Amino acid sequence: MMFNTWQIGLDIQYESIRAVAVQRQRQGWQLRHWWHLSLPEGTFRDGLLTNAEAFTKTLADWRNELPFRHQLRVSFPTQRTLQRPVPAPDKRLSEPASETYIASATARQLQMSPAQLCWDYLASQDVADPHLIVAARQTDVAALLKNLATVRLYPATLTPAASALSTLITPCHLEACQYLVHHENNHWLWVSTDASRRWGWADTSTVPTISDLCQQLTAEPELVALSHVHSEPFPIGVLPLNAWGALSRLQPPLPRHGGMFTVAIGLAIGRISR
Question: Where are the alpha helices (DSSP H) in 151-268?
Fold first, then answer.
């Protein structure tokens, strides 16, 4: 039945919402639809929703276009999330006890109570290595989910936008790169290609160019794959990141500038842990 389900990546940015729907076919991912929904200025500020009415109004009509069978994967502002290493729990602990330990250890590091956090983790493969915890404020997550539910949108996942880039590494054949980078209007998103899958965000006011970002990441430009949200001259030395290459079947019309949908495609084709 999953073959009949549209997997939809919904990338929420300051000025617009970008969505891509795909279906899993035997030969790979098939594009079903894409959407670009403009948002009024001031709908978001610093990653926080400040105009819920405009946000839900924009999504309401779009919701009516979706088929009954769909699975929604939504981006969460990378700048509103934190990553922290936490020592792996004793393997003798039960799963509930392990999760209690991880939640408490994360909360202590952030000087917050566990009830104030939503968190997930990437388990380490070696007991000597720490788990990588991803945490966000419960109030931020609850506000986004509440507004999505207002228009009958119920995400299967909320994923930091930068983290979604990692799903493009293999289908776009970019394993030889050190980093995948996506350039938005006022910030950079990046993810490492090594086993750690580290990811992050940088403001263009402090890191204005890809050269500056490479220096910050201690990466060689020729080992960085880059996509842009807008059409602009491509920097010399870096590799292109074409997220549409992850899809085996495309159908026109396609967007004039495909880089705007890089994160949405990453969300759409990502796996969901069960």
Answer: 161-164, 210-217, 262-268
- CATH number of the domain at 91, please: 3.30.1490
CA 36, 170, 157, 25 torsion-angle sign: positive
Beta bridge partners of 272: none
CA-CA distance, 219 to 221, in Å (whole number)? 6
Whether residue 190 is found in the same domain as residue 239: yes
Q: What is the CATH number of the domain that holds 186?
A: 3.30.420
Residue 273 within any structural domain of the chain = no
Residue at 274 is within a domain: no
41/15 Cα distance (integer angstroms): 6
Residues 143 and 126 placed together within one structural domain of the fold: no
- pLDDT, one tens digit per residue, over 70-111 is 999 999 999 999 887 777 777 787 878 887 877 787 777 767
3-state helix, strand, coil in the chain (%, to 5): 30, 30, 40
Say whether both 53 and 90 belong to one domain. no
CB count, 10 Å around CB of 261?
A: 25
Residue 12: which of 230, 256, 206, 184 has the closest Cα? 184
Q: Is the pTM of this model over 0.70?
A: yes
